[in-house]
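Tutorial, part two.
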Amino acid sequence: MSSTKDMDAWFAKVDYSQARQEFSDGWKQTLKALPGLDRSDAQKPDAAECLAEDVEKTSKAAGALEPLTADDGKRSAIAPVDLGSIHVQTPVVLSPMAGVTNWPFRTICEAYGAEGLYVAEMVTSRALVARNPKAFRLCRFAPSERPRSLQLYGVNPEITAQAARMVVEGDLADHVDLNFGCPVPKVTRRGGGSALPWKSDLFRELIHRVVEVCQPAGIPVTAKIRVGIDHEHETFLEAGRIAEDEGCAAVTLHARTTAEYYGGHSDWSKIRQLVEALDIPVFGNGDIWGADDALEMVRQTGCAGVAVGRGCQGRPWIFSDIKHAFAGDSCRFDPTLGQVGHIILAHGRLLTDFYDGDERMAVHDLRKHIAWYLKGFPVGGSTRKAFMESESLSDVESVLSRLDPSVTYPARVENKPRGRVRYAKKVHLPYGWLDSRTTTHSEREQLFGDDPMDASY
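Running the prediction step on this input gives:
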């Protein structure tokens, strides 16, 4: 943009209706019918009864902190977290995942564990500024979603600031998270995601520009980071301090390096180091497969809350389990196959709304979720194949009708890793990226050049 006047004129022409969606009462009824939402207090075991068992389960893990207990011997509740004007009663975050955390999945997770933060899948700043229709679709939120959390990805501070201004001008979100944690090669080879904090000048400038736009509007900005590119190029402590200095309300640390991708076990000791180094809240991320893992991460690291990614794939009720665990009780939801089937159909109906009535596209999207939902259940290869060949919700319902609804949730997969598990791999970076901690003029020209992939999906 050649001038502030030109920029103002450009923003005045943005059609934000693409980021809106008409909602009927149907979506609300779909969510209300989810199984496992109507558990009464009478069904909850007393926290004191399960405290000894909880402590025994976690006693083998490393960590110097004592179990989270109150003077009366009961499990202590985890304190709420304030991010600017946003009060997070249950400090648990649904981590943004591309192709997963659209509003249908978010609202299901929210229905089970309300009062957390449920972050939309990553939106590319350049695509939003270019008014890409899919970028606007990813900015859609259901009426129940408050606060509305949106994650922006960018490398160019100017473009990312423009995207943030669109969020403000169009009232697209109440909270902005910045992605500095993605390890995917097509992102890091452009200097983005988890590669970007290595260039401390660029990292600082990008955060500063976004906070400068969002803060006057009362929109808190947070940052998601990794430990570093690898263990010889760790950046998390410096990045955390920069984020705090530039006005971020909180930082989430995925306790793996870019090179470690999603393999092995995340190093929770790094989370504790960051907690000790910062005054703002730190959310821990990595290997939260169940409520006990969430409690153990808080116990070991002192983090203000946890962020759940792959652990909720096919298990949106994990947010209910964590909510109860953080409140100090041991109530858990172990659905039967029939109840999981109801969740699958509800998910499919919501996805149909998301795709503006295109049921075929919705079912194609649902297929990967079905594989996650059914993980560990003895349904057989032919049944799984039939699900993967489904083209409509009636096809999905027909296959579900063949299953035994009384089959209980398989203990062998409960609280176990799920989703993609990939081990150490070569990190793809721009040429000469590690030669210096700051960007040169030529590097910036190369990074900020027009790339059509940045504006498309």
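Residues 39-67, 69-74 have pLDDT under 50 and may be disordered. In part three we will examine how such features are distributed along the chain.
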